[in-house]
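#struct-pred

JT: dropping the chains for the assembly here, can someone run the whole complex?
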Amino acid sequence: MDQTLLQLVDVTFSYPGRGRMAPVPALDRLTLSVREREIVGLVGPSGCGKSTALKLVASLAEPTGGAIFVPGSKRSRLGAFTFMPQGDSLLPWRSALDNASLLLEVHGAPRATARRQAREALESVGLGEFAAQLPSELSGGMRRRVALVRSFLPELPVLLDEPFGALDAITRLDIQGWLLRLHERLPRAILLVTHDVDEAVYLADRVYVMSPRPGRVIHEVSIDLGRPRSEDVIGSSEFAAARAALLREIRRGMGREAA
Amino acid sequence: MIARDVGRTAAATRRRTGPRLAVALRIGRRVLLPASVLVGCVLLWYLLILALSLPSYILPTPLQVLRALVARRWAYLPDVWTTTREIVAGFALGLAVGLPLAVAISRTRTFRDSLYPLLISTQMVPLFALAAPLTILFSYGQMTQILVAALYAFFPIVVTTADGLSRVDPDLIVPIRAAGASEWRIFRSIRMPAALPALFSGSKLAVTFAVGGAVIGEWIGGQSGLGYWMRFQNDSLDISGMYATVVVLTLLGVTLFGIVSLAEYVLLPWHRRSRADLGNLWRGT
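RK: done, full complex below.
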């Protein structure tokens, strides 16, 4: 049995109200776990608090209730995960290579070592020729790939917040397949927030469905499509069944039955 | 048959001249356009004199100014050197004072609330009023000119850099903050580089203002320099000469502005708006 790397137990969070307004509850007793090497999807309607949950895990905000356990790490949660927010967050003044090495440097690797590791990683996933380019010289899909390499280099669980939003459908499909291969090479645990049900089914081993705000987990689905996965699974009946089940649960959570 | 040959030749010619024509058009935009505006202004100047029959001790003709300029030509160099030194020193002092102030203002509310009103009010003091006491304080050195130039230069640097530092896209910071980076690390790796374009915008303003500051300092308390020379010419009613000195000063100011722009272009390759093209120098940030 793979070790649990992250566990949220009854995590509650409210945004402080403005002035005399009451606090706005965003998460309600959210409970979930992520194990080693596992890709876990977190789906739900917009505004259900998916992104907020990631921020809490990354220690960018503190929960108002409940607990977040990180069994593998003795340190505080800050620095125990890598977090890729929506958008790629590449630094425009650093080359692709220096962007990829950034988090290794922050984690204390000497610059030369970090750069060497980043170069090897970029080369191994077919981005070697782009190493010297500035982000402004890369396409949207390439920028995401560089940002993903940056997030995967430290040996830590990865938090991805809608990593492929704003990409066109074909690029999105390409980069999803590419992420699966990156994950085979650098098998990190991943907590993936997405509103795209197909994406969750294609990438994840398990998917949690969240209710509308204040978000809590209303259902958990195992995706038994096996690994390694290729684009072919998208046409399979197992894929269709998992997708239908997820949609049904999301609709039920929103108080609407499937049409 | 002949017609077809002619057509083919014409097409070939077009193919050959196409890119060259594009280059010519670009040069036209970058050189001829500003040049013709300049010529237009000079013409307007001439027309104004003719229309209002202004005497040359009020507004000399462009030709008189040009003659005065040519007559003195190399004699300007020592004064240009003096004024340049004052501007550069004033600018450097403005930068040295302005940068830490900008960082302080962007980092803490207390600093922002307590310093900003004071900084703004320094810009309301007419520097003419300050130059005289400064001259008495420092007697006739270059210190007055440098200080007045610095007083003009630091303000745009503080305002633009503080703005740049506090407007950093938070999404750029999130990944390294989540990785446990210290505030100093975040400042060094993200805030400061992200604020550099703003710092350069401020520097372009600052170097321009420093020209004015140095000249005011020289006009009031200098013994050399273009401002001193302008005052001398003004007092001796050599108005053509004074305008000629203004032309020299303008060239100096534009050159210094160009040097700051060039530094920005070379040091911030990621901030170049479009293709590598020196024409962008004059478009500002």
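JT: nice. The first strand of chain A starts at residue 4 and ends at 15. The interface with chain B takes residues 58-60, 75-76, 78-79, 81-87, 89, 91-93, 102-103, 106-107, 134-136, 150-151, 154, 159 of chain A (CB under 8 Å).
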